[in-house]
Amino acid sequence: MDDICDIGHWKLIRCALPDTNAGYIIITTTRTMTVAEHIGGAYNLKPLSLQNSRILLYGRIFGNEGMDKCPEEGLIEVSNKILKKCAGVPLAIITIAGLLASKRRNKMDWYEVHNSIGTGLENNQDVMNMRKILSLSYYDLPAHLRTCLLYMSVFPEDYEVKQDDLIWLWIGEGFIQSGKQGKSLFEVGESYLNELINRSMIQPVYKYIVKDIFDCRVHDMVLELISSLSAEENFVTISNGVRHNSPSKKDRRLSLQSDKADHATLSVTMSMPQGVRSVVGFDSVVDLLAPSLHAFRGLRVLCLKGSHIPKCSPIKCLGNLVQLRCLFITGSMAQLPEEIGNLKYLQILHVAGSSIMRIPSTVVQLKDLICLKFNSGVTLSKRFGSLTSLVELSYCWVEDHPTRNIEELSNLTELRVLSFCSYTVTWDDSLNKSLVECLCKLQKIQILDISIGNGESNLDGWVAPSHLRRLRISSAGSPRCQLGCPNRRFLLTFPC
Description:
Elements: H1 7-15, H2 33-39, H3 50-62, H4 76-86, H5 90-101, H6 107-116, H7 127-140, H8 143-150, E1 161-162, H9 163-173, H10 185-198, E2 203-205, E3 215-217, H11 220-232, E4 237-239, E5 253-256, H12 263-270, E6 278-282, H13 286-289, E7 301-308, E8 326-332, E9 348-350, E10 371-373, E11 392-397, H14 402-409, E12 417-422, H15 429-441, E13 447-452, E14 470-475, E15 491-493
Parallel strand pairs: 4-5, 5-6, 6-7, 7-8, 8-9, 9-10, 10-11, 11-12, 12-13, 13-14, 14-15
Antiparallel strand pairs: 1-3, 2-3
Helix pairs in contact: 3-4, 3-5, 4-6, 5-7, 8-10, 9-10, 14-15
């Protein structure tokens, strides 16, 4: 059992375990000695040996597993000195490796890193020295990456957020201002995330069959660092029942992480909504937002994750939040109001994973929309083809008027991601032909997911763009697909 924070948590867990004479062993981890002693005694983990420290460092920098010798002779001496300061602590080694990997393979640059570590960990095991190493990696980041990393403090400890969701939230917050060299905002966001992963500041969590789809989290010590920095810089006001930044009129972002949060303190924060630009709420804290969300006139980002949202919820006032750029909702909710069409600046509407099964017809008024994600089975109204700025559309349900909907799709020429569903319509040659004609117009498509439940899909005649990365076709019949895709390898799956 990993990372038991306090004795109270252990007592709750202990109630579910058999008696101690049952002949079993429980292994727990904790960062608190008093917790370890209460549970039954501490075993202090030994630091990595110098050889294993080298294997970890060089493997992260040079990419060769099992290598305990530096492949560049000029860096042997300085790398040994750096490892001495890391004192066999894996997190310190991984963090420094991520920093060194971003530097030139130059002795002077590496010595600069070595000298910046200070006393390090070789003489003192205090957590503050580990924080010095993490801080060094943090302040070495470019300003735009520091901002993106600080944003991870809005999520609770051990929280895993989908990579795409994180990038869209960055875009909604305005951290990614413009595409570079013809890249979309999302592609620039992907490069930011990859850089933070390469520097070991964000950890990818692989739990899906497709390996380029993953969740993101940060190590607990990294979270402690960025939460502290967020408080110092007034970047995020965090309320989680354990800590709460002092509310002020300068609050820009609120992270409401637990319904155990101090209601009195939250009331003070919620009574000063003028400067708040972003609200992220988890679990049942949505109830705390209900009385005052309508007053957040300057709100740009509203993210309600895993929450039960009652019918009398503040969502009814969405049409009044005219500055809103990004709306994320997962959890139980009746429906979106028709007034959502008033949000003329809205760029991201993400309700996939919620109970919302209807998208108001007024959504076609949102001309700045670049991301529209909802559940399979939700029918879009006619004229959704007017949303020509869309980069991602998931899912497109074409049951009612398949031919018309495919024609509407063909207008969305900026699409990078498309998930396309049809389960009751009998898919025939005419519809296959219309779909191929549509796909031929979507020249920027990179990820395409087609699910057909009745009939046979046939994409013969479609020449896939060279930048296509992933194609998934699911069909009740045998999918037929003979693609031309020059100079590009991509994942192609045909589920049964």
